């Protein structure tokens, strides 16, 4: 067997569709149609999951009790991105923050983007208030919330 490496130049297009299922589907539909953020509450543990999931890892039961999240978002933790990755969302220029965004009352965080200038992003600390910036035309994806920004 040869240790010689061979490289084949080319491009692969993999167009696919993904079915999010009924729980995540309802979350995405709520973003699109109502501009609301919803989670699910486990009937066994009372934990609220955001984004919603259909099974509780703690209660080991199916959960379908949807709750509307009405609290204001805050930064839990984040990292500033200085070099634009290949899969950066359209319209996002560096620097920006990849962040865990918490909503008081929810027991998990939403991973999303925080936009601001270098100084604003560096000044953000855990617990800092954020504001969601919504897309003008919503399509039923997580990018219906374009990003968060310091409030």
What would you say this structure looks like, in words?
- The chain has 151 residues and is of the alpha+beta class.
- It has one domain.
- The protein contains 2 helices and 8 strands.
- It has helices spanning 21-34, 118-123, and strands at residues 37-41, 48-49, 65-69, 74-81, 96-102, 110-115, 130-134, 145-150.
- The strands form 3 sheets. A 3-stranded antiparallel β-sheet has the order 2-1-3, covered by helices on one side.
- A hairpin with a 7-residue loop joins β5 (96-102) and β6.
- It is globular.
- The termini are far apart.
Structural class: alpha+beta
> How big is the Rg?
19 Å
Distance between the termini: 61 Å
Strand order of the largest sheet: 2-1-3
Count of individual domains: 1
Q: Mean of residue pLDDT?
A: 93
Biggest pleated-sheet summary:
3 strands, antiparallel
What fraction of the residues are assigned to beta strands by DSSP? Answer: 25-35%
Are there runs of 5+ residues with pLDDT below 50, and where?
none
The percentage helix is: 10-25%
Rough outline: globular
Q: Output the helix-strand order.
A: HEEEEEEHEE
- Total E-strand runs: 8
SSE layout and pairing:
Elements: H1 21-34, E1 37-41, E2 48-49, E3 65-69, E4 74-81, E5 96-102, E6 110-115, H2 118-123, E7 130-134, E8 145-150
Antiparallel strand pairs: 1-2, 1-3, 4-5, 5-6, 7-8
List keywords for this structure.
3-stranded antiparallel beta sheet, alpha+beta, 151 residues, 8 strands
What is the compact description of this entry?
This protein is α+β, with helices and mostly antiparallel strands and 151 residues long.
């Amino acid at each position: 067997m040869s240790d010689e490496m061979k490289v084949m130049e080319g491009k692969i297009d993999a167009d696919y569709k993904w079915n999010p299922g009924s729980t995540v589907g309802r979350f995405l539909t709520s973003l699109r149609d109502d501009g609301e953020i919803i989670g699910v509450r486990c009937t066994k543990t009372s934990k609220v999951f955001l984004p919603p999931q259909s099974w509780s890892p703690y209660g080991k039961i199916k959960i379908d009790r949807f709750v509307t999240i009405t609290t204001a978002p805050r930064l839990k933790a984040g990292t500033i991105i200085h070099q634009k990755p290949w899969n950066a969302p359209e319209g996002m220029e560096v620097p920006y923050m990849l962040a865990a965004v918490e909503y008081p009352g929810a027991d998990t965080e939403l991973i999303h983007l925080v936009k601001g200038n270098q100084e604003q992003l560096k000044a953000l600390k855990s617990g800092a208030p954020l504001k969601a910036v919504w897309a003008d035309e919503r399509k039923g994806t997580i990018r219906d919330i374009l990003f968060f920004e310091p409030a």
